[in-house]
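tokens incoming
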């Protein structure tokens, strides 16, 4: 089994997907834009070959370069789990005549408006939305969609360059902020809680499913520095008290409507106060923000390896134990510069240490990160527990009592 894996070391969790491919017996040909010597040792050791392509974001040219370089090697699969490069992987597959999702299919997961059009055509609930390229078109779309609304990149990832507008004044203030974005989706703002639905699929059928929730919604924690963003992966997907079943059924329908093949999916969905569930968006790749690690901690398995097994051999051998709810809390330092001190963590370790799965706050002396550019902020703390109430208590303590100071 020969697999071309595009971007084998970035984002950082891709290192483990590369490792997983090697562990299930694949000969992995990595494709990246940096020199091979810059790869982490654990990635380097998992590769059988490496191809450097300086501009991976020139999709057409990069696809030709990759296809020409590997065309005579008997490649079986071409994969990427990084959102900006899933279309590149699909184009290479098309050029080589390989199995896997075509570029047109993957475009339905990448182009937010096309995604909604295809899902809506299947009779599933999506936000009202319009495509726009110019400021005039944004204004026209806003008239059609109505206020409040969300403006987001057509081909975005996460909540970058995403803005809520509650009034015409908000809209006018937002327009200068998105001039660098080529094309946007102007869509109905859905009031409600925001969840995720994550899967590993084989030929469109989910062989593993997971549901998580954001606290608060990403749009809120991208807007206010004082918030400690948190996310939770639920142990029991069918607990009636959680009311997650409708979101799972929505997700299955969305994947069918978009023609999902084999691989990871990460979907965001909303549950309105009246119980209606609505698609946010879906990608044919893994979720970021350590969601994959949270699934591993929840189930005591290695889903990096099982994804690789699904991709290579159309098999998923691990059994999901679903023993634990898992929660992560991301912290943001007060002040600018380097981390000077951390308050409250020793008490957290003493009180909840047996339940802790991650203790990844930046060390004293480290330069704090730009909280607007990364969910990871200035580090995170994670726990797992068989019961939800104690887990929420631990998350609440970290949110309210752990503080980082920079200067």
């Amino acid at each position: 089994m020969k697999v071309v894996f595009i971007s084998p070391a970035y984002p950082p969790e891709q290192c483990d997907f590369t490792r997983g491919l090697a562990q299930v017996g694949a000969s992995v040909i990595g494709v990246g834009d940096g020199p091979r010597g810059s790869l982490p040792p654990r990635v380097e050791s998992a590769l059988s070959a490496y191809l450097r392509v300086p501009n991976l974001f020139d999709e057409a040219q990069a696809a030709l370069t990759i296809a020409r370089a590997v065309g005579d090697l008997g490649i079986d699969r071409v994969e990427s789990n990084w959102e900006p490069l899933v279309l590149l992987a699909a184009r290479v597959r098309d050029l080589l005549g390989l199995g896997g999702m075509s570029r047109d299919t993957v475009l339905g997961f990448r182009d937010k408006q096309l995604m909604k059009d295809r899902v809506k055509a299947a009779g599933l609930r999506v936000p009202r939305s319009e495509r726009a390229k110019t400021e005039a078109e944004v204004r026209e779309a806003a008239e059609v969609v109505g206020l409040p609304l969300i403006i987001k990149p057509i081909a975005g990832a996460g909540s970058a360059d995403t803005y809520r507008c509650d009034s015409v004044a908000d809209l006018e203030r937002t327009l200068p902020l998105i001039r660098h974005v080529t094309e946007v989706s102007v869509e109905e703002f859905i009031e409600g809680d925001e969840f995720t639905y994550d899967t590993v699929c084989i030929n469109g059928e989910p062989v593993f499913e997971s549901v998580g929730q954001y606290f608060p919604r990403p749009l809120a924690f991208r807007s206010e520095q004082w918030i400690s963003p948190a996310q939770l992966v639920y142990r029991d997907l069918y607990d009636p008290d959680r009311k997650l079943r409708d979101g799972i059924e929505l997700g299955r329908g969305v994947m069918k409507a978009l023609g999902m093949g084999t691989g990871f999916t990460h979907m965001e969905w909303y549950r309105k106060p009246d119980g209606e569930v609505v698609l946010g968006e879906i990608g044919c790749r893994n979720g970021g923000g350590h969601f994959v690690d949270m699934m591993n901690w929840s189930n005591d398995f290695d889903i990096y390896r099982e994804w690789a097994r699904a991709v290579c051999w159309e098999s998923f051998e691990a059994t999901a134990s679903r023993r634990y709810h898992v929660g992560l809390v991301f912290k943001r330092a007060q002040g600018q510069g380097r981390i000077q001190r951390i308050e409250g963590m020793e008490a957290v370790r003493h009180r909840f240490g047996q339940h802790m799965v991650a203790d990844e706050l930046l060390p004293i002396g480290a330069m704090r990160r730009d909280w607007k550019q990364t969910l990871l902020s200035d580090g995170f703390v994670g726990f797992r527990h068989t019961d939800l109430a104690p887990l929420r208590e631990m998350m609440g303590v970290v949110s309210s009592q752990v503080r980082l100071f920079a200067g």
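note: The radius of gyration is 21 Å.
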